[in-house]
């Protein structure tokens, strides 16, 4: 039975010896968002329209420069390639925006729940204060009681302190 000279074990998976391209998803996502944002601007549409007009004019008028004759197959290929890359990049940018919106919605929901709990707590505290104030003697109540006492004292006859002799 021949022996393995490479020192590789058969019960272990092979290591990845191929060229591996490491792409940071956030960096790629930011790049795609920037590109998708640019594709939706008037500046991009202007330059694309200008390139198409120059392309068509040169291919129709300049006989020596006709690299893409009338049906403009190469131009159609360029547009197809652009669309094939633009659509997924725009979808990727939308997905990242959806993720940000979802996080923002969760934060808003948590903030609203906390605000509701704080409001309910303050409402309970306010109700407790109202009950406590209802049991406290107010200035008007004390004034009315003192007035009533004064009236009671003024109605009763005064007893003199000097003994009367009989």
TrEMBL record:
<feature type="transmembrane region" description="Helical">
    <location>
        <begin position="73"/>
        <end position="93"/>
    </location>
</feature>
<protein>
    <recommendedName>
        <fullName>Integral membrane protein</fullName>
    </recommendedName>
</protein>
<feature type="transmembrane region" description="Helical">
    <location>
        <begin position="44"/>
        <end position="67"/>
    </location>
</feature>
<dbReference type="Pfam" id="PF06210">
    <property type="entry name" value="DUF1003"/>
</dbReference>
<keyword id="KW-0812">Transmembrane</keyword>
<keyword id="KW-0472">Membrane</keyword>
<keyword id="KW-1133">Transmembrane helix</keyword>
<dbReference type="InterPro" id="IPR010406">
    <property type="entry name" value="DUF1003"/>
</dbReference>
């Amino acid at each position: 039975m021949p022996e393995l000279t490479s020192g590789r074990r058969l019960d272990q998976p092979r290591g990845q010896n191929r060229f591996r391209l490491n792409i940071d998803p956030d960096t790629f996502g930011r790049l795609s968002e920037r590109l998708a944002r640019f594709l939706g601007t008037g500046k991009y549409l202007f330059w694309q329209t200008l390139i198409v007009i120059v392309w068509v004019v040169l291919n129709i008028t300049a006989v020596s420069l006709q690299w893409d004759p009338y049906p403009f197959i190469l131009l159609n290929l360029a547009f197809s390639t652009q669309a094939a890359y633009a659509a997924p990049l725009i979808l990727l940018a939308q997905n990242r925006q959806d993720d940000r919106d979802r996080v923002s919605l969760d934060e808003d929901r948590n903030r609203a729940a906390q605000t509701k709990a704080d409001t309910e707590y303050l409402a309970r505290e306010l109700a407790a204060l109202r009950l406590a104030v209802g049991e406290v003697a107010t200035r008007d109540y004390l004034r009315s009681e003192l007035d009533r006492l004064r009236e009671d004292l003024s109605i009763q006859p005064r007893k003199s302190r000097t003994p009367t002799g009989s």
